[in-house]
What does this fold into?
Amino acid sequence: MPERGQPGHRGRSLDLARTGWLGRLLDAYVEAHDPAEDDRAATEVLCAHPRDGRLDQAQRLADRRLARLRAGGGLGARAPGLPPALAARAGDDAAVPHLARAALVVVGWDVLMAVAALHGNRSGPEERKLELLAVMATSIEDLALARRLHDAHLELSARARGLASIEGPAAAIERRLEQRDRRREAALDHPAGHALLRLELRALAALGSLYFERATIEEDGIARLHALSRAQKVDLIGVLVALAWADGKVTPEERRLIEHHVTLAGLPPATARRLLAGLDRPADESALELEPLEPGPRRFILEQAILISLVDDDLDQAEQALLERLAARLGASPLELEQVMVEVTAFYEKNREAVHDFGPVSGAFGRLRELVVERAQRAVLGNTRRLMQEIRETGELARLLGAASVRPLTAEEAAKVRTQLLDICKSIPALAIFALPGGALLLPILLRVLPFNILPTAFAADEGASREG
It folds into this structure.
């Protein structure tokens, strides 16, 4: 294998459609990767969550990477993009499925590189390739291959144990990935794909943390982590099945969404059959073995639960009540459930074009927006008197709102009004929905009840700028 910097290494095409793409991609990735980003990510997590164990911190790194992915297109992205240096090597004619597959692998490597930094691992390029492949081998439960790669890593030379290059092990993992991805080519065309991707990135981060912490292939630990990952997938699908049955029937749209989850989950056949059988008989909510979760995993499950409850373009009282009970069992407060609904709505507003082809789920986003707006309107109407009192007591805000009745507000003034209105909402519990991340999209509801003629163009410009940010 050519060393870094030697002819034939740097300029070699990735050719993602040809056998051996994973090894070529790994060479190019390690060569182009900037470790400074790993250090920044690890430092941010360590500073924000100093009391967490390393495994929890590693999974927070996975959440952080997925958040970046979502910020670049989120639920509607057909695939995360390859970094520019790799995209240039892939070529313009690379088929979308091949690009999507490679990009997902790179996202996983990004997580593992940050996890390595979290554990203070400073391996050189060739060692790092073996480490990344070893963790990938544990993720597909090929422990024999993982041990072989780890042994080569311990010798600090890929040739020491007859491993002439990474090409053989990479090809073995590549074959397994391609088998898996035949059922996942559309994973990022659907919210279910992102739901399962999140679980799998967290599982990969946990496996990486175990490897970098113990510096060995610990079979019992790997088995426990895989069992936990499968259990989380089963819990997620169980929640969705229960919600689908909440109104006494499972619609074709709900069935398709849950079947999609089961397909993407890659569960053992017997487990998949058991979950799918739940679509043919009413689900027992009490049979769900749910317990309070950390905020990240909890919000992820709530997002999916909200979508399944709306996918039939309806949210009746039984579904809403069950959603609230399940949220409570997961440890979420009513305000947190409201926040997730607002955040999903805000995402939809920002990415309408990207999600318009989700089929029935597209309608769910539209219905969700209507529901959030209805709740916000009720909150405002029930608190108008207190809202006006708070405005009168806020000198600058009252002055600016008065000015808006006789002249257009400047962009700076409009931004001040927006900020101060949101601050007031924080002081009124019933209006906390407006102060949540994404709650600014509901500001027009507030403005409609105020006795001032505020030109909407000023706020539209300000809100557009905030979305771009």
About this structure: Residues 219-244 form the longest helix (26 residues).
